[in-house]
Amino acid sequence: xxxxxxxPLIGALLGNPDCFPHxxxxxSLVETHVSWVLLTGPYAYKxxxxxxxxxxDYSTLDRRRFFCEEEIRLNRCLAPELxxxxxxxxxxxxxxxxxxxxxxxxxxxxxxxxxxxxxxxRVLARxxxxxxxxxxxxxxxxxxxxxxRVAPAESPxxxxxxxxxxxxxxxxxxxxxxxxxxxxxxxxxEKWSETVFARLEGTLAGRKRAGFVRECHGDLHLANMAxxxxxxxxxxxxxxxxxxxxxxxxxxxxxxxxxxEFRGQRPLAWRCLNxxxxxxxxxxxxxxxxxxxxxRALVRAKVACIRAGQGGLAPAEAGDMRGxxxxxxxxxxxxxxxxxxxxxxxxxxSGAGKTAVSQSLLEACGGVRIRSDVERKRLAGLxxxxxxxxxxGRHLYSDHSTNRTYNRxxxxxxxxxxxxxxxxxxxxxxxxxxxxxxxxxxxxxxxPVSFVDVQADERVxxxxxxxxxxxxxDASEAGVDVLHGQMxxxxxxxxxxxxxxxxxxxxxxxxxAEWQREIRRLSHRxxx
Length: 528
Known about the structure:
By secondary structure, the protein is α/β, with parallel strands linked by helices. The protein is 49% helix and 14% strand.
């Protein structure tokens, strides 16, 4: 923002480092559509703009103080190392003092400053995001959701009407800022949202009854995440509007998944979604994912629209904001189109590499993976990496546990397929009844089904299993004794099953282009 457009207070704080109660070499400014953030070196000071946007009201000093305090309270849940306190700005607009004596003329949230280049959207643009960081992100969000406060049944939050209200508000707030040629797409998106809302109204109500409406972050995207002292910090959750943070956990997650897709990271978006689901087990929430992905894309489209209309932007910057709006709107429309739906059943002995192969498949083609090792643990009340010490034929690997696990795989696959997403079921599937159950499901739902048989030499299998047991980082506890039991009792794929099977070397899985080609071939050729 050029100096002539800055309020006197912000200009004075930028121009005089002595305004701050600690040594400052240079003050720089980061501006959003609702705040100014002053970077001083050791600390960042966030001052809220005196705005009333309908969904946000910072119009009075008392309101800005209250929301500064709320920002500290809420964001310490995910970023306790960043959020410090609320400080008063005293003095006069032209000669302010941060934390000085006298009455407050403004309030600021004081945070530890981190390197701006460590913000995850910038990390992505500079060097990409490591898959392990995406896994950490998904696990951190899932853990946050698991401990977040649940909306009381009598509260107004998370009802179907409350879920749709900000969506309707988006359309109303975006429309005045659009050119005539942009209005038809907005109308299509509005009509789609209305139609899908009517279809999902009962599902939305059921989600609240089941406790999935919680006090969430509300603005979960990469620009609100950073690495601070090598630890992932998720910050800047919504404090200004309780109804925008007391939401379904899938709405919160949908923002992050959408943002990864917006930034051209579709494989990482699927990775993030799958890692979250493995931790949370909330596969039923997928019924709402596209509904919320459209909403989240339009939230960001609205922000770009508001920013383009605010004063102080150069024509090129305003044009960039318009382009950003169009990009988000196009992505939202993409989410309204049906996903290709198919069922892939993995097959192979423990240690063959099925999980690595299915990971490459889900990232290349999209899809939701359901892992027997994870669900077996969940049924036993264990976390994926938690050890049970189960021996062959006992506890986790008893016939009873195995039957329950494979029945659960069918139930979860049905849930995901009905939600409109491809499914990859990752298990050994060494018994014919286990495979028949999945094929019957595919026939019931009229979706294509195929097998991916992952092969490896026995010595490789034994070595991998030994290494996995040593690291203890995988959900599987199958040891060499389990492997040998599998080899003795496996029922091989039938001729009919082999006709719908792709054989894969566990050490050299297909690349993205080959996966896409094979899935198209198998899905189109093979009916259930």
